[in-house]
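go over this:
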Amino acid sequence: MPIGSVFNSGVEGFNRVSQGIEKASAEINRASIEQQDDAQLAQQRQLTAARPEEAVTAPVAQPARVDEALVNLKVEEFNAKANTQSIQTADDVLGTLIDIKV
């Protein structure tokens, strides 16, 4: 396998990792905003409730998946380390080949 191919694979993998990190970060941000909105909505309902049981009722919504986004971030960290190691190895091999030819 040519050295350039290994190097390009590492760079492409690192670019995919960057996209995955951006996606997971956006998901965490979205979940955080939704949680703030839910808390504000619950507070507003509590202030405007006519009966005590209405004040306790929370809106039914899909829970935010912050845990899944954090796991994805950790997976992307491992992928970034692997791709970085591939790039470093290709660089080391290329440096050795250049030293041998000179």
